Amino acid sequence: MPNNPSVHAAVLAGFVALAVAMGIGRFAFTPLLPMMQKDLGLGLAQGGWLASANYLGYFAGALTAAFLPWSARTLLRVGLFLVVLTTALMGWTSVWSTWITWRSLAGVASAWVLVGTATLCLARLSAAGNPKKSGWVFAGVGGGIAAAGLLCLVADLRGVSAPDTWLMLGVLAALGTVATFPLWHVSTNAPYPSDVPPRANGHAHRRLVLCYGFFGFGYILPATFLPAQARVLLDDHAIFGLAWPLFGLAAGVSTLTCGVLLRRFSLRGLWLAAQLLMAIGVVMPALIPGLGSIIVAALCVGGTFMVITMLGMQQAQVTGGPRARTLMANLTAAFAFGQLAGPVFFSLMNEHLGASLNSSLYVACAVLVVGCLLLLKPFPAHSVQAAGVDVQ
Questions:
Q1: Considering only CA atoms, which of 175, 298, 315, 294 is closest in space to residue 230?
Q2: Per-residue pLDDT reduced to its tens digit, 110-151
Q3: Per CATH, is 202-380 categorized as 1.20.1250.20?
Q4: What span, in angstroms and rounded, lies between the C-alpha atoms of 369 and 319?
Q5: Which of 44, 62, 152, 298 holds its CA 20 to 30 A away from the CA of 200?
Q6: Which candidate, 221, 244, 246, places its Cα nearest to that of 349?
Q7: Architecture of the 1-189 domain
Q8: Nearest residue to 109 (alpha-carbon basis) of 186, 173, 15, 41
């Protein structure tokens, strides 16, 4: 039977759900790639295809989350089960073609969990009159990245093989899934602002989706290539081993900080500020080449990408009303499409026009700035006549 868990229980369950889905299902491959290269002879091109398979799966998951006749609870449960299964299968199997399948399914599952968790947790917090605690929920992504990165670092230093590390992550994901049980049966009637007259929000929805897609395109280029640039300047494996968990820690802290700032500033205003900061970080290595600028870029991008993710989901909650889940899924799909398009754009520019990575960073910065311009106009809030809307 549906029930209403306490705010603290919902926040903790949401934190863990995103830690499992994103920290393990989406991003654990990053710190594991060097181990797979060393232990399993995985080539760099093969690693690139595995990463792309996960991106493509994430895109497919976001699209299907908008159209599947499943509740948000079902998306959450099925998604978490698939994350646990596909993570363990990465350790149980050793054929590259099967790895492609597991990474694709993990991407699909991660998108389902993100949409399901955001829908349930944001609605629960809104119903409780405590939406500012959403920062703790989305801090789960950074927490998961940090935990997975530290586990991989310790495993590598202790000589644990890549397959065994995948199995360890699968066990960790299973334990985390148990902690998400408070969200498995939640049903929340979430109130929406009633002081704004009803209006057709189709144009605002499209503009919101476009802004989020531009964010995905601008974020992925530095997220993909900055580590490679840093490796050229500093070949210290201990530092690289710590870089990923520190990136996750920065992402987690940033959402908590944003939750505090939301007490004084609007969703859109903070999103605009975060995206401008990201744009500065993206272009810094191109403007001022060097390790210092790469560190600044990593902080700017790592410290804003989850903030924008959280603010986008919250804006969809306010603007979407009873269509909040569909709007969240559309935002996630737009982000995934932008994330897919970024590396393809760079590859085509490099292959056919001889463009450098710096040129692509300028383009990414410009796209982020265009997104900022689209954010200058407020998004109307949804209004309903009833006291609440079932968002199951």
A1: 294
A2: 999 999 998 899 888 888 877 778 888 988 988 898 898 889
A3: yes
A4: 22
A5: 62
A6: 221
A7: Up-down Bundle (1.20)
A8: 173
Decide if 218 contacts 360 (C-beta within 8 A).
no
How is residue 336 written in tokens? Answer: 């995934």
What CA–CA distance (Å, rounded) separates 347 from 11?
Answer: 40
Q: Cα separation of 385 and 373, whole Å?
A: 32
What are the residue ranges of CATH 1.20.1250.20 in the chain? 1-189, 202-380
Closest CA to 20 of 82, 63, 68: 82
What's at 10, amino acid-wise?
A
Question: Amino acid letter at 52?
Answer: S
Nearest Cα residue to 225 out of 350, 333, 312, 59: 350
CB neighbours of residue 238 within 10 Å: 9
Q: What angle do CA 92, 96, 99 make, to 5 degrees?
A: 55
Quick check: 299 pLDDT over 70?
Answer: yes
pLDDT of 237: 56
pLDDT over 70 percentage in the chain: 86
- DSSP code per residue over 220-252: HHHHHHHHHHHHHH---HHHHHHHHHHHHHHHH
